[in-house]
Every structure is written in C-alpha cells, then in structure tokens.
Amino acid sequence: MEPVRGDPALLARLDAAIGYYLRLQHDDGSWPEYSVGERSRAATAFALGYLSKTLERLRAAEALPQRRAEVTGALRLAMAWFLDPGNADIWQDSMVEFANQPAAGLAGSAKALALDPDESLRRLLDDRIGYFAEYAQSPAGFLYEPRGMDIAYNLNVTLTEIHEIHTELGSPVLLPLVRRLADWFGYTVVPEPDGAGLVSFASGAARTPMYFLDAVTPDRQQRDLGSVFCRSVPGLRVFYPAREDRAAQRAAWAAASEPIAPLAPGDTNPRIPANIPYGEGYPTRSQRAAALAGLPAVRHERFTELRADPQDQHYLFVRRPSYYLQAFFGTRPNQVVRAGLGLLWHPAAGTFVHGGQSSNTECWATVLPNGGTDAASNLTPSYFDGPAGTGTAVPADEVRTVRRDLGLRWTTAGGNVTGAVLFTDAGLVREATTTMDGLEQVPLVLRPHDDVRWSTGGAAVYGEAAAATATGMTITRGGVTLSIDWGGPAAATVAPTTRTYFLDASRRLHVLRVPIGRAGRIAYTFG
C-alpha cells in the first residue's frame, strides 16, 4: 500500500465514499439494508463496527477532519437508536434473535465509546450487554440464529464480535457466555480419527450449516479472531488450526515464487482485514490434541445428553460404547432444520451417517411417495428407559439419567409417520409406520477404500450408483463394520451425491434408499 499512501486521488475517493454512506443514515440513527425506508438492525449494527474503525484510522492518519466530525456525530446517533432498550426490533422480550447482529452493534458501540466516551451511552451499552448475556443464549448453550442453533454463525461471526467487545471494554464481561457456548459446541462435533478434521451437527442448524471443518484451514479465516479465547476456554481449541501448522502454512506461502492469484470480485470478506488488529491465539499441537481428546464423544463411552430450549427444541446426544449419535426433536425453529436422527459416528472409524440441512434428499428420514419426509415436520418425542412402548416412560428433564438402552418414539405433525428407535450398546434399531408406502433414506459418508457390500455379496463401488434386491448392507472401514439390516428382500439403491468432505475431498456423501412399505424395521449394528 506504500505507493498509494496519502495519494490525493485516493483520499478524495475515500471522502466521497464515506459521505455517500453517511447520507444513507436515517434521522433516527438507523441505516437501511434492502430498501431506502428500512430501519435495519443488521445494517446499523455493522455500520457501528465499520464506521468506528474508519474513524480510528482517519484520526491516526490525521486525514479528513470535517468528515471525521460527521462520522462522530453519525456514530452517536446510531448508538442512541441501537442501544435503546425500547427498540423491539433489536431487543426482543425473552429472546434476542440473530445474535450475531446485536453482538456486532455492541462491539461497534464499544469501539465508538472508546474513541469518544459518553457516560449516558456507556450506561446504555452496559445495560444491553447484560441483556444480551441473559437473552441471546439458549439454555441449551447456543446463541440464537435466528431462533435455533447454528454452529457456523456462532463460531465464525458472533464469537469474534464478543472478543471485540472484550477488547474495547478492557474486560471479559461475556466470558461465562463463551464458556457455556464452548460446552455446547463440544457435543455438536466429532473428530475424524485420521485427523482430517471435524464433522458437525449440520441437519439441526437453523441458518448456515457447517458440515465439516478441516484441521488446517486456508489462511486466513474469519473465525480465526475467536482463537484468542483458546487461552481462557480450552474447549474451543479444536476449532482452530494448531499454531505450528499455521506457521508452516505461512512460511510456505512466503517462500513460494509463483504469482499471487488475484481474488475474484465478491470473493473477499471485509471482516478479515477488520479483525486482524485484534490478534490471534492459536493453540499448540499438543493443546489442540488434548482438546480433541476432551470432546464428550471422545472422552466418554457412555452418556445420554438432552439439551432443551423453551421453544420445544430437543437436541439429543447419545454415546454408547460403539457409537455417538446426534438428533433433533420437537418443534423446528424454521423450515431449513431437518428433524430426527442426524449423525452416526464410530470412535475408531469416524462418521458413517450424516444428514443434511434444508434438503429432503440428503436427510436421514422416512420418505413418502410425494418426496416429503418426516424430517421436514415437527416431531413430537416420547422417551423411554428401554424399548418404546414397553419401557418406562422418562420425562425429558430426566433423559440424561438413562444409561443403558434408550427408547424413543416420535410422530409427525400430520400423523403420516410414526417412528421409533432403540439405542443399545451395539447400535440402534429404527422403526417406521406410515400411512402410505415409504422409503428408509440413509445419507452415508463413504471413503474410497470402504468395502461396501449388499447382503447378496455384491459390491457397491465408491462414487457409483448401485442397486440390489437384498436384505441389508455392510460397510467395512479398517477393522470396523457397520451392518444395516432391513430384514427382508427389498429393491434398494445407493447413489453418490456432489457433497464431499474436507479440502482433500476424502469422503463423499452417498444416499441409501430402501423401500419399507407401510412399516419397516432397520437395524444398525457395529461389529
């Protein structure tokens, strides 16, 4: 940037751009986003962040004094609108929606007040930070996006805004919230045993699903600012590259002689350069390895964890010696969430089943003739100590006390599918009863060297479609075999999809579909 530092033409363009941006602000302090008359929570929140950073840099450069005065006034007006407790578009009763946006407004306000202190606005800021801490986080542990869980937004966006708040205030006021969030995160991811990275609870995400996270990501990611929390919240260390790996990556880049490829228009993220001054805190390899070993699914062989939100959202996590399973039941926070079973993982062999979000063709579900699935419905659950129906009914708040076989039954809102599952130490048995002929749909994560065979002995080849009239299928990976048994002969199919996992595309999603008629029983057994 040296050749253009202080360039009059550049400064004039910058002045014009800031002037245009300031003219978009409404008299009440808000900014529009999609239409001129809109009072946008998101646009105003991010205006507070970027304008306060702009003001800091203009002051450091002693540039555009008149424009700096206008920015100062615009920030004060925006804070008065954004921090107003009566502004119901931002501060909803009992729940703060789209948590990343209020967090951004709080971070921008903290920055603006660090530049130009104001006692009355600071009192409003402190009050709203307290409100955010109380109402932006679900009792389950996640931050609402918009009214449900979303790993990607919580990790990539909101966590970075929280660090900015801490930095500008000089106090970790939201650290208890971050620790509860890290505890929640621990249940939502599983590590692949070969070290490729993490696979996450994508089907239960209400906004932007994070299907996987590479162990070493391309340098540099928006989420990396959150790595500073690794010092005080060790559970977050699994989500960031090891310090040594990032250093090696950067050294290789610096030593390379190839021309740097220009970024395509739109393929940039203004959050990354904005976050750089706040630093980073990657864990060491040994620290990251210890955090991976501390993930609940890795650390324990047996637990039943049900995290509930007052909106009738049930997030179920079942660990038994042979597997770990993630599922969602209850009332879906929106239409993109896919209810029911979501992920099946083995501690030595990794992920075998992984359901998708916002899709009726990639979720783990019962599929009806019209293409609809029970996963696209609200599913009313009942829990049992033992098989559904014959076991002892267990209230939701006592599900975590079930240590052995856990039974579960659910029904769709329209009553066209009734499902049940029994979780045992060796695997699970899933049953479905429908009002019309259905299919069992299983989104399988396969690796190229997996041995996939029908019960007839025929092989299903990785990356190719296959069909067989069979009673089941086995998937052998290393010394672990997952048997999927549907009991009687059925014309089953398996087909590859376009979804691959990790930078090396070392896994691919394949979807198994098995006709079950109006009633089916499918056993998933590890051996």
Would you give an account of this structure?
- By secondary structure, this protein is of the alpha+beta class.
- Among the domains are: 7-136, no CATH class; 301-526, Beta-galactosidase, Chain A, domain 5, CATH 2.70.98.10.
- Helix content is 29%, strand content 28%.
- It is built from 11 helices and 18 strands.
- The chain has helices at 8-23, 41-61, 65-82, 100-115, 119-135, 151-169, 175-188, 243-255, 271-275, 285-293, 296-299, and strands spanning 189-191, 197-200, 212-214, 303-309, 313-320, 323-330, 340-346, 350-354, 365-367, 379-385, 392-394, 406-412, 417-423, 427-446, 451-454, 466-477, 480-501, 507-526.
- Strands 9, 10, 11, 12, 13, 14, 15, 16, 17 and 18 form a 10-stranded antiparallel β-sheet that branches.
- A hairpin with a 3-residue loop joins strand 13 (417-423) and strand 14.
- Helix 2 (41-61) packs antiparallel against helix 3.
- The model has no long low-confidence stretch (mean pLDDT 96).
